[in-house]
Amino acid sequence: MINRANTAALFTPIYDEFMLSEYKENDQVCPILYQSIDDKTKDYKADDMSGFGIWEEATEGEGGGYEDPTLGYPKTFTQGKQWKKFQVTFEAVDQDEYALLKKEGTARSLGRGSRARIETDAATVLTGGFATAGPDGEYLYDTDHPRNREQTDSDLESDNLLTGAFSHDNLELAETQIANNYVDPAGIPIPQPAKAYIVHPPAIRGKIKRVLSDRAGEQPDTALRNINRFAGAYDSIEWVYIDSARGGSDTQWHIIFPEMDYLKIVWSARPHFTSWIDEDAELYKFKGRMLYALGASNWRFGFGSTGL
Q: Which CATH class, in words, describes the domain spanning 8-47+75-305?
């Protein structure tokens, strides 16, 4: 029986369940695109280096063939704390035996808030990639990424900034650009990963579906019934957190390669819920808390266009 004699401790596991039920990590985009790492250090450092360059011919009876790994650019993830709290007065409980139980909706909103915080931060990495510098000093999406720290030849720069609105033709151009620019720090071509997501805001949902649908056998907007080779070729993710209402845009589109593990979220404390009693102020206090950092350790996580 729930009555006014119950303390806040009784509701801690209940509220924890309420909060986490609204957090729903399995419904988030962040866990799909980002590598999740549990690490208790304040600063997590991701070192970027290739293996080695192309093999060279050896001479019988002679040594040699040694090579140092080619260095990329390190990225440090400094974790920050996010939280939200609410409280219930002793008087509220004294005068209403169900006062604590009625806070179920408040606990659920904490879960929604934590989910929104993570999704917002994760989306900002993509939407800000056109104007935010990455580990190599260039924008995350840019035309002149140096391949490694020792590079001096500008002719070896890589370009992961796509151009134009999303369309069948621009997706073909994007694939060519990826093939020409997707190389490791030693300059060895990286095959386009098998798992590629096209991430987009809701505003261009129709364009995406017309090109990528597994039933779209013909190119959209063509009179000659040309074949659509992209039918079913990509998975798409519609992400409301990258739209213009949330600081992004309604025209951008991204080709993201999650299996490369260059988008990272580093956790010291995943979302959790605690409660305590403040006897001096006569308050039941409840708190949701998490500690994490996220970002891109390398521009090779993907390619992007502003859609303009």
A: alpha beta
How many residues does this entry show for the chain?
308
Report residue 209: phi and psi, to 5°. -65, -35
pLDDT band, residue 147 (cuts 50/70/90)? confident
To the question of pTM greater than 0.90 for the whole model, the response is no
289: three-class secondary structure by DSSP: strand
Residue 273 · residue 129 · CB < 8 Å: no
For the residues 223-245, what does the mean pLDDT come to? 87
The stretch 211-225 carries a mean pLDDT of: 69
Q: Angle at the Cα of 198 (from 195 to 199), degrees rounded to 5?
A: 125
Question: Of 277, 45, 254, which is closest to residue 161 (Cα–Cα)?
Answer: 254
Whole-number pLDDT of residue 267 = 96
Assign residue 117 a region: left if phi > 0, alpha if psi is -120 to 50, beta otherwise? Answer: alpha
Distance from C-alpha of 274 to C-alpha of 259, rounded to nearest angstrom: 35
Distance CA 122, CA 243 (A): 13
Q: Where are the beta strands (DSSP E) in 30-126?
A: 35-38, 43-46, 75-78, 80-89
Q: What is the structure's pLDDT at 98?
A: 63
- pLDDT score at 286: 81
**Is the CB of residue 248 less than 8 Å from the CB of residue 238?**
no
**What does the pLDDT look like over 52-67, one tens digit per residue?**
777 888 888 888 887 7
Q: Are residues 219 and 226 in contact, defined by beta-carbon separation less than 8 angstroms?
A: yes
**Half-sphere exposure in the Cβ direction for 146 (13 Å, CA):** 17
